[in-house]
Input
Amino acid sequence: MNTQVIYDYIDRHKDDLIGLLQECIRSKPVNPLYATQHGYNEAACEKIIMEKLETLGVELYSFDVELDKLEEYRDMPGFITGYTDQIDFRNRPNIVAKLPGTDPEHGRSVLLIGHCDVVAADDTELWKHHPFAAEVEDGVLYGRGCVDELGGLVSQLIAIEAIIRTDSRPKGDIWFSSVVCEESGGTGVLAVADWLKKRGIRIDAGIMGEPTDLDISLLCRNITWGDMKIIGRTGHLEEWQPHWSEGGPVDAIKKARYIMDQIDRLNEEWSSRPDKNHPLEKLPCQVKVAMINGGHHRSSYPAVCELSFNIQILPHETNALGLGPGVRKEFEDFIARVSAADPWLSGHPPIIDWVCEADCSEVPKDHPFVKVFEKNAGTTRRESRLIGSGFHTDTGWLMRVPEIPVVNYGPGNPALAHSTNERCRVEDVVTCCKTVALTCLEWCNMSV
Ligand SMILES: [Zn+2]
Output
């Protein structure tokens, strides 16, 4: 393998790489769930990617997500039913492409995959540059999706181009996929996972382009959402009132505050508990309250206060489907215990409703693909660290359905995803492209 040839090709075509990324951002591929303006959709971006793939002469497949064909996955984590039922999947094609290897029987295969949809950017006036103008200033590209995760996706595409144009095609097959609908549930990836499985396609390893700041992420956690309803009793807030045991009011917001204080205590305990920490994760698993909704009138005691929360769960805490019933039970028992200690709540315990659960995944550190990846990432930049992603990614579907071990690797700071002034260093996109190309080449030339 001639590393320098690949480097040179990518350096020479740096403007094409960034140009393609800009074009994708400018197509405004906002997921329809968040699109507030007509015409924001993924189809335009998929068209750009499709046209690029057509110039490469690879095998091409394109298909819409058909929900009724995915029924068998309904009970699996991440199968979001609540709103996909309301979303139209027509004219939102997934793309799959294959660059056949020169000797696929004897070379390992790889899948490069990413989502083309992005979240909305309705806070346009707060951006330094318009979120869909994709402008570069001082070597930094600004734009919605440059981090999450068009930068990773387009790097993968140009990595394949570099392999083709430098006549470096390896023994094993290189697959590529650009999927829709990640930002509202992951149904796009599920459809690709199912497509691969039903065709009996075996792929030995995969790279998903979620932002990792050029580290290699082997892990994503299960993310579980829940709501908790805390019930009080209303009454006039400015008036003298009897004690609640004599029929007086109970301030539901105050009770919610008590519950939140207890959750703080639980989090403190979890932060030092070994089973709530993973050596690759920066953060311990916590219960984070993200939304509060309480009260109904400025002169009345609040009758109800609702807390919406997020619990992160590590792979070792989950069952075979990646679900965390044990953690949910632990939390329910905890709330029951602290409620029992409160005279009002003991008789009126909070009601917990589990909203949805996104699965987790993990590739072992000593997997041969990880070794190859680490080595090649180290040659293009500082050594890439092995990390875990704090946020959820769609790797679980690929691990569970067609059983492909998939790591995440992409340019950009993940903390900037979905944010105002989402931005990414141009140089990092180039580095990502080189690392992906070299990793694919070494891996796909390895004997099966
Ligand atoms: Zn993403």
About this structure: The first strand starts at residue 59 and ends at 64.
